Write a sequence for this structure.
Protein backbone atom coordinates (compact mmCIF):
# COMPACT_ATOMS: atom_id res chain seq x y z
CA UNK A 1 0.00 0.00 0.00
CA UNK A 2 1.03 3.61 -0.54
CA UNK A 3 0.85 5.68 2.65
CA UNK A 4 1.38 9.44 2.54
CA UNK A 5 2.26 12.03 5.18
CA UNK A 6 1.61 15.60 3.97
CA UNK A 7 2.91 18.69 5.69
CA UNK A 8 0.37 20.32 8.02
CA UNK A 9 -1.09 23.59 6.74
CA UNK A 10 -3.20 24.77 9.71
CA UNK A 11 -1.89 27.99 11.23
CA UNK A 12 0.49 27.29 14.10
CA UNK A 13 0.43 23.53 13.57
CA UNK A 14 3.91 22.12 14.15
CA UNK A 15 3.12 18.44 14.71
CA UNK A 16 3.73 15.63 12.23
CA UNK A 17 1.58 12.50 12.10
CA UNK A 18 4.31 9.88 11.70
CA UNK A 19 7.90 10.14 12.88
CA UNK A 20 10.77 8.48 10.96
CA UNK A 21 10.71 5.45 13.29
CA UNK A 22 7.10 4.77 12.29
CA UNK A 23 7.92 5.25 8.61
CA UNK A 24 10.74 2.75 8.97
CA UNK A 25 8.33 0.12 10.33
CA UNK A 26 6.01 0.66 7.38
CA UNK A 27 8.75 0.45 4.76
CA UNK A 28 10.25 -2.61 6.46
CA UNK A 29 6.92 -4.36 5.84
CA UNK A 30 7.06 -3.51 2.16
CA UNK A 31 4.83 -0.45 2.05
CA UNK A 32 5.65 2.68 0.08
CA UNK A 33 5.62 5.86 2.16
CA UNK A 34 5.47 9.32 0.64
CA UNK A 35 6.45 12.23 2.90
CA UNK A 36 6.07 15.82 1.82
CA UNK A 37 9.29 17.81 2.01
CA UNK A 38 9.70 19.64 5.31
CA UNK A 39 6.81 17.72 6.90
CA UNK A 40 8.94 17.36 10.02
CA UNK A 41 10.21 20.92 10.22
CA UNK A 42 7.98 21.78 13.19
CA UNK A 43 9.72 19.11 15.27
CA UNK A 44 13.13 19.83 13.77
CA UNK A 45 13.26 16.57 11.83
CA UNK A 46 14.85 17.04 8.42
CA UNK A 47 14.01 15.36 5.15
CA UNK A 48 17.13 13.20 5.36
CA UNK A 49 15.78 11.42 8.45
CA UNK A 50 12.66 10.37 6.53
CA UNK A 51 14.70 9.43 3.49
CA UNK A 52 16.94 7.23 5.64
CA UNK A 53 13.79 5.57 7.05
CA UNK A 54 12.86 4.52 3.52
CA UNK A 55 10.37 7.25 2.59
CA UNK A 56 10.17 8.97 -0.75
CA UNK A 57 10.23 12.76 -0.34
CA UNK A 58 7.71 14.51 -2.57
CA UNK A 59 6.26 17.93 -3.28
CA UNK A 60 2.88 19.00 -1.87
CA UNK A 61 0.95 18.09 -5.03
CA UNK A 62 2.24 14.51 -4.85
CA UNK A 63 1.84 14.00 -1.09
CA UNK A 64 -1.79 12.95 -1.52
CA UNK A 65 -1.28 10.42 -4.31
CA UNK A 66 -1.76 7.45 -2.01
CA UNK A 67 -4.22 4.86 -0.75
CA UNK A 68 -4.04 6.18 2.81
CA UNK A 69 -3.14 9.69 3.95
CA UNK A 70 -2.09 10.11 7.58
CA UNK A 71 -2.13 13.65 8.91
CA UNK A 72 -2.77 15.47 12.18
CA UNK A 73 -5.37 18.16 11.59
CA UNK A 74 -8.61 18.52 9.69
CA UNK A 75 -8.86 18.97 5.95
CA UNK A 76 -8.47 22.61 4.94
CA UNK A 77 -9.49 23.89 1.48
CA UNK A 78 -5.94 23.60 0.16
CA UNK A 79 -5.75 19.99 1.35
CA UNK A 80 -9.08 19.17 -0.23
CA UNK A 81 -7.95 20.58 -3.56
CA UNK A 82 -5.04 18.13 -3.62
CA UNK A 83 -6.82 15.02 -2.32
CA UNK A 84 -7.74 12.59 -5.12
CA UNK A 85 -11.19 11.03 -5.18
CA UNK A 86 -11.58 7.97 -3.00
CA UNK A 87 -8.49 8.37 -0.81
CA UNK A 88 -8.78 7.50 2.91
CA UNK A 89 -7.81 10.24 5.36
CA UNK A 90 -6.74 9.14 8.85
CA UNK A 91 -6.55 12.22 11.11
CA UNK A 92 -8.37 14.49 13.51
CA UNK A 93 -11.33 15.54 11.37
CA UNK A 94 -13.47 17.58 13.79
CA UNK A 95 -16.55 17.53 11.57
CA UNK A 96 -18.95 18.34 14.42
CA UNK A 97 -20.33 21.79 13.67
CA UNK A 98 -18.74 21.78 10.21
CA UNK A 99 -21.51 20.73 7.78
CA UNK A 100 -19.93 22.58 4.84
CA UNK A 101 -16.65 20.73 5.25
CA UNK A 102 -18.47 17.43 5.72
CA UNK A 103 -20.34 17.93 2.45
CA UNK A 104 -17.10 18.88 0.69
CA UNK A 105 -15.39 15.67 1.82
CA UNK A 106 -18.43 13.63 0.85
CA UNK A 107 -18.61 15.23 -2.59
CA UNK A 108 -14.97 14.28 -3.10
CA UNK A 109 -15.78 10.64 -2.33
CA UNK A 110 -13.33 10.53 0.56
CA UNK A 111 -13.13 8.07 3.44
CA UNK A 112 -12.70 9.91 6.75
CA UNK A 113 -11.54 8.06 9.85
CA UNK A 114 -11.46 10.47 12.79
CA UNK A 115 -8.89 10.11 15.55
CA UNK A 116 -11.08 12.02 18.01
CA UNK A 117 -13.91 9.50 17.58
CA UNK A 118 -11.93 6.27 17.92
CA UNK A 119 -12.72 4.30 21.08
CA UNK A 120 -11.43 0.98 22.36
CA UNK A 121 -13.37 -1.77 24.13
CA UNK A 122 -12.94 0.03 27.47
CA UNK A 123 -14.32 3.33 26.16
CA UNK A 124 -10.89 4.94 25.99
CA UNK A 125 -9.75 7.24 23.18
CA UNK A 126 -6.34 5.97 22.03
CA UNK A 127 -5.54 8.93 19.73
CA UNK A 128 -7.41 11.72 21.48
CA UNK A 129 -6.35 10.91 25.04
CA UNK A 130 -2.65 11.85 24.81
CA UNK A 131 -3.49 15.17 23.11
CA UNK A 132 -6.20 15.91 25.68
CA UNK A 133 -3.75 15.31 28.50
CA UNK A 134 -1.23 17.71 26.96
CA UNK A 135 -3.91 20.37 26.46
CA UNK A 136 -5.12 19.95 30.03
CA UNK A 137 -1.62 20.42 31.46
CA UNK A 138 -1.14 23.45 29.22
CA UNK A 139 -4.31 25.14 30.47
CA UNK A 140 -2.71 26.21 33.76
CA UNK A 141 0.45 27.43 32.00
CA UNK A 142 -1.79 29.48 29.70
CA UNK A 143 -3.51 30.98 32.74
CA UNK A 144 -0.22 32.07 34.25
CA UNK A 145 0.93 33.60 30.95
CA UNK A 146 -2.29 35.51 30.27
CA UNK A 147 -3.06 36.60 33.84
CA UNK A 148 0.51 37.13 35.01
CA UNK A 149 0.11 34.83 38.00
CA UNK A 150 -0.99 31.34 38.88
CA UNK A 151 -4.73 31.02 39.41
CA UNK A 152 -6.01 30.73 42.97
CA UNK A 153 -9.38 29.17 42.14
CA UNK A 154 -9.97 26.88 39.14
CA UNK A 155 -13.17 25.34 37.86
CA UNK A 156 -12.84 22.41 35.44
CA UNK A 157 -15.86 21.43 33.37
CA UNK A 158 -15.43 17.80 32.40
CA UNK A 159 -13.58 14.85 33.90
CA UNK A 160 -11.99 13.26 30.86
CA UNK A 161 -8.26 13.21 30.11
CA UNK A 162 -8.12 16.97 29.51
CA UNK A 163 -10.14 17.87 32.58
CA UNK A 164 -8.23 15.63 34.94
CA UNK A 165 -4.88 16.78 33.57
CA UNK A 166 -5.91 20.41 34.11
CA UNK A 167 -7.12 19.63 37.62
CA UNK A 168 -3.87 17.88 38.55
CA UNK A 169 -1.78 20.71 37.11
CA UNK A 170 -3.79 23.31 39.03
CA UNK A 171 -3.55 21.34 42.25
CA UNK A 172 0.22 20.97 41.77
CA UNK A 173 0.35 24.79 41.83
CA UNK A 174 -1.67 24.91 45.05
CA UNK A 175 -4.84 26.19 43.40
CA UNK A 176 -8.29 25.51 44.83
CA UNK A 177 -9.73 23.17 42.17
CA UNK A 178 -13.21 21.77 41.61
CA UNK A 179 -14.19 19.44 38.77
CA UNK A 180 -17.79 19.31 37.56
CA UNK A 181 -18.85 16.14 35.81
CA UNK A 182 -22.06 14.65 34.48
CA UNK A 183 -22.56 11.65 36.76
CA UNK A 184 -22.31 10.75 40.41
CA UNK A 185 -20.17 7.74 39.52
CA UNK A 186 -17.57 9.91 37.82
CA UNK A 187 -17.79 12.47 40.61
CA UNK A 188 -16.97 9.77 43.15
CA UNK A 189 -14.07 8.50 41.02
CA UNK A 190 -12.59 11.99 40.84
CA UNK A 191 -13.00 12.47 44.58
CA UNK A 192 -11.15 9.20 45.12
CA UNK A 193 -8.17 10.86 43.39
CA UNK A 194 -8.19 13.55 46.07
CA UNK A 195 -9.75 16.20 43.82
CA UNK A 196 -12.93 18.08 44.76
CA UNK A 197 -15.79 17.20 42.41
CA UNK A 198 -19.50 17.80 42.03
CA UNK A 199 -22.23 16.88 39.55
CA UNK A 200 -22.56 19.61 36.91
CA UNK A 201 -25.98 21.05 37.64
CA UNK A 202 -26.72 24.54 36.29
CA UNK A 203 -26.68 25.87 39.85
CA UNK A 204 -23.24 24.36 40.53
CA UNK A 205 -21.81 25.68 37.26
CA UNK A 206 -23.09 29.17 38.04
CA UNK A 207 -21.91 29.31 41.64
CA UNK A 208 -18.42 28.02 40.92
CA UNK A 209 -17.90 29.98 37.69
CA UNK A 210 -18.67 33.23 39.50
CA UNK A 211 -15.97 32.45 42.09
CA UNK A 212 -13.28 31.14 39.72
CA UNK A 213 -10.21 32.90 38.37
CA UNK A 214 -10.00 30.29 35.60
CA UNK A 215 -12.61 28.04 34.00
CA UNK A 216 -11.28 25.16 31.91
CA UNK A 217 -13.75 23.84 29.34
CA UNK A 218 -13.01 20.15 28.88
CA UNK A 219 -16.42 18.60 28.24
CA UNK A 220 -16.53 16.21 25.28
CA UNK A 221 -19.20 13.96 23.79
CA UNK A 222 -18.12 12.14 20.61
CA UNK A 223 -20.07 13.21 17.55
CA UNK A 224 -22.02 15.92 19.34
CA UNK A 225 -21.55 19.66 19.85
CA UNK A 226 -20.23 20.68 23.26
CA UNK A 227 -23.04 21.78 25.60
CA UNK A 228 -22.98 25.53 26.27
CA UNK A 229 -22.41 25.33 29.99
CA UNK A 230 -21.50 29.02 30.23
CA UNK A 231 -24.24 31.18 28.70
CA UNK A 232 -23.35 34.77 27.85
CA UNK A 233 -25.41 36.04 30.76
CA UNK A 234 -23.23 34.04 33.14
CA UNK A 235 -19.95 35.02 31.49
CA UNK A 236 -21.00 38.67 31.87
CA UNK A 237 -21.21 38.15 35.65
CA UNK A 238 -17.87 36.39 36.04
CA UNK A 239 -14.96 38.14 37.68
CA UNK A 240 -13.43 40.85 35.47
CA UNK A 241 -10.12 39.56 34.14
CA UNK A 242 -11.00 35.94 34.79
CA UNK A 243 -10.14 33.43 32.08
CA UNK A 244 -11.91 30.73 30.07
CA UNK A 245 -9.56 28.16 28.54
CA UNK A 246 -11.91 26.41 26.13
CA UNK A 247 -10.18 23.14 25.26
CA UNK A 248 -13.46 21.92 23.75
CA UNK A 249 -13.57 24.66 21.09
CA UNK A 250 -13.23 22.27 18.14
CA UNK A 251 -16.59 20.77 19.10
CA UNK A 252 -18.12 24.21 19.57
CA UNK A 253 -16.83 25.20 23.00
CA UNK A 254 -18.41 25.35 26.44
CA UNK A 255 -19.20 29.09 26.43
CA UNK A 256 -21.60 31.03 24.26
CA UNK A 257 -18.87 33.67 24.02
CA UNK A 258 -16.19 31.27 22.74
CA UNK A 259 -14.91 31.39 19.17
CA UNK A 260 -11.85 29.68 17.66
CA UNK A 261 -8.48 31.40 17.97
CA UNK A 262 -4.98 30.47 16.80
CA UNK A 263 -1.51 30.21 18.25
CA UNK A 264 -0.66 33.46 16.48
CA UNK A 265 -3.58 35.32 18.07
CA UNK A 266 -4.70 33.07 20.92
CA UNK A 267 -6.83 35.25 23.20
CA UNK A 268 -9.48 37.95 23.23
CA UNK A 269 -11.64 39.67 25.84
CA UNK A 270 -15.42 39.51 25.75
CA UNK A 271 -17.84 40.48 28.54
CA UNK A 272 -14.76 41.42 30.57
CA UNK A 273 -13.46 37.83 30.52
CA UNK A 274 -10.32 36.61 28.75
CA UNK A 275 -10.98 33.76 26.32
CA UNK A 276 -8.30 31.34 25.10
CA UNK A 277 -9.81 29.09 22.42
CA UNK A 278 -6.95 27.55 20.46
CA UNK A 279 -8.16 24.29 18.94
CA UNK A 280 -4.76 22.71 18.39
CA UNK A 281 -3.20 23.52 21.76
CA UNK A 282 -0.75 20.55 21.72
CA UNK A 283 0.95 22.02 18.64
CA UNK A 284 2.77 24.27 21.11
CA UNK A 285 4.54 21.14 22.38
CA UNK A 286 5.21 19.55 18.99
CA UNK A 287 7.92 17.06 19.90
CA UNK A 288 6.02 15.51 22.80
CA UNK A 289 2.72 15.55 20.90
CA UNK A 290 4.13 14.15 17.65
CA UNK A 291 5.83 11.30 19.47
CA UNK A 292 2.59 10.39 21.24
CA UNK A 293 0.52 10.60 18.05
CA UNK A 294 2.98 8.63 15.96
CA UNK A 295 3.18 5.83 18.51
CA UNK A 296 -0.60 5.69 18.96
CA UNK A 297 -1.46 5.86 15.25
CA UNK A 298 1.14 3.42 13.93
CA UNK A 299 -0.59 0.13 14.89
CA UNK A 300 -3.74 1.21 13.05
CA UNK A 301 -1.78 2.44 10.04
CA UNK A 302 -0.03 -0.93 9.91
CA UNK A 303 -3.41 -2.68 10.07
CA UNK A 304 -4.81 -0.66 7.17
CA UNK A 305 -1.63 -0.87 5.11
CA UNK A 306 -1.38 -4.62 5.60
CA UNK A 307 -5.01 -5.62 5.11
CA UNK A 308 -6.47 -2.76 3.15
CA UNK A 309 -8.53 0.05 4.63
CA UNK A 310 -11.88 -1.74 4.24
CA UNK A 311 -10.70 -5.01 5.75
CA UNK A 312 -9.09 -3.25 8.70
CA UNK A 313 -12.27 -1.26 9.34
CA UNK A 314 -14.21 -4.49 9.37
CA UNK A 315 -11.86 -6.19 11.82
CA UNK A 316 -10.63 -3.43 14.18
CA UNK A 317 -13.40 -1.94 16.36
CA UNK A 318 -11.41 1.20 17.17
CA UNK A 319 -11.08 2.08 13.50
CA UNK A 320 -14.73 1.35 12.84
CA UNK A 321 -15.78 3.65 15.70
CA UNK A 322 -13.87 6.49 14.04
CA UNK A 323 -15.47 6.06 10.60
CA UNK A 324 -17.38 9.20 9.59
CA UNK A 325 -17.40 8.89 5.79
CA UNK A 326 -16.94 5.81 3.65
CA UNK A 327 -16.13 6.62 0.02
CA UNK A 328 -18.20 9.77 0.30
CA UNK A 329 -21.15 8.21 2.11
CA UNK A 330 -22.03 9.57 5.55
CA UNK A 331 -21.42 6.66 7.92
CA UNK A 332 -22.16 8.45 11.22
CA UNK A 333 -25.79 9.37 11.96
CA UNK A 334 -25.17 12.64 13.83
CA UNK A 335 -22.62 13.90 11.31
CA UNK A 336 -24.96 12.96 8.47
CA UNK A 337 -27.92 14.77 10.04
CA UNK A 338 -25.94 17.92 10.74
CA UNK A 339 -24.67 18.07 7.14
CA UNK A 340 -28.06 17.24 5.62
CA UNK A 341 -26.70 14.06 4.07
CA UNK A 342 -28.38 10.64 4.02
CA UNK A 343 -27.04 8.34 6.71
CA UNK A 344 -25.82 5.15 5.08
CA UNK A 345 -24.66 2.41 7.47
CA UNK A 346 -21.56 0.67 6.19
CA UNK A 347 -21.88 -3.10 5.85
CA UNK A 348 -19.30 -5.85 5.73
CA UNK A 349 -20.05 -6.17 2.02
CA UNK A 350 -19.25 -2.48 1.51
CA UNK A 351 -15.92 -2.84 3.29
CA UNK A 352 -14.99 -5.90 1.25
CA UNK A 353 -15.40 -4.08 -2.06
Amino acid sequence: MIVAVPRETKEGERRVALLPAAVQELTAQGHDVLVETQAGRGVEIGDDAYREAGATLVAARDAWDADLVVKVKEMLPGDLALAPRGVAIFSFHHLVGEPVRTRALAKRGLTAIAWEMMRDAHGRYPLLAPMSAIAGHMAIDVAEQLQGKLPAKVLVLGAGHAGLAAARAARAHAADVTVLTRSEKTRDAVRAMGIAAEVASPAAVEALALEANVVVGAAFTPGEPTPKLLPRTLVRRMRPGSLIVDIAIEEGGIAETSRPTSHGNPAYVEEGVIHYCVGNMPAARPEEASRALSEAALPYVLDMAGEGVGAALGRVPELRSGLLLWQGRAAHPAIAAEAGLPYTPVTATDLAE
The mean pLDDT is 96. The chain has 14 helices and 15 strands. Residues 286-307 form the longest helix (22 residues).
